[in-house]
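ligand=thiamine diphosphate
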Amino acid sequence: MSTGLPVIKYDKIKGVKNTPHEEFYTSGHRTCQGCESAMVMRQFAKASGPRTIATGSTGCMYVANTSYQTTPWIIPWMHTQLGAGGASAVGMAAGLRALMRKGKLPEEKINVINFSGDLGGGDMGLSGVSGALQSDYDLLIIMYDNESAANTDIQATGLTTYGAQTTFTPPGQKHRIMARRWKKNVAGMLAVGHPTCRYVATASATYPALDFLNKVRKALAIGGPTFIHTFDPCPKGWDFHPRYSHELGELGIKSGIFPLFEVIDGKVIYSYDPRKKGRVPVREYLEKQGRFAHLVDEDVDYIQQMVDKMWEEWEVPGVAPFRGNLNSAQK
Ligand SMILES: Cc1ncc(C[n+]2csc(CCOP(=O)(O)OP(=O)(O)O)c2C)c(N)n1
Ligand code: SF4
Ligand SMILES: [Mg+2]
């Protein structure tokens, strides 16, 4: 089906057989077994290839990937301060442009990719991400979202799912639910707020060939500043056996609690449209995680109602939480 958008030319990965064999994020890390954020790192490096420089904001994907004298990174990689992901990407892209202009580097496309966590990119560093998306540099920011400040022992962030237990939101005798905010919708917010940014997407490393690898390639091909928000089950923080990471990735998407979409030149394209494909009850996703073990039926019903609203009442379902506009008579 035509989207009415110009055709984007990029080297599409058509399936598992067609996926490059080369790895640029290899052994030598200390992430937990079943860590989907580590899969995000591995896959973005695979999709972007050797002519890539990455900057990473403080968090699990910095700390667990840079134990003393060991690292899984084959591509050049630089640590940046928590919250400084956007600024570091702009600085790196500006530096490369200046070196090429002065003839100190040959003219070529070098991919600049920043990865920041949900706290580093979606809370603390949001202003820097916004600044980067208003720049005119070629850069991609990947916000890997494990729904907590995982590296410092699982504190709640603005992207933690409603009701989840974290070290900041333990269920108590007085209040069963301490995480009471609905998940911050970073990709939707950035797409709505940066009309000249040509590519914003959410993605899942659970579906490498079908989803994430090609979204990285598409973002890099479209160019300018671009943004991808990934959904990363975290066995430690979400409290499940590592063997279920992919299953939880699937259930998060199929229940509709994490919408998968792209916004290309202002048009929304659903990568998985649960309105057409059906939604599994959100309970199936919640009950497999220890962080929701304290929820009672009414809490699960509330979360289900909120997810229903996202898909049935939002002006742009799953993306923009407006519900139409009031005409002057209603004001
Ligand atoms: C300015 C600053 N405040 C606090 C810290 C401590 N700290 C290090 S990593 C981290 C959590 C980062 O969370 P997130 O960005 O979601 O990445 P994750 O650890 O989940 O991978 C915190 C709070 C820090 N390094 N710098
Ligand atoms: S705590 Fe979570 S995000 Fe951090 S390394 Fe372990 S599984 Fe990955
Ligand atoms: Mg995090």
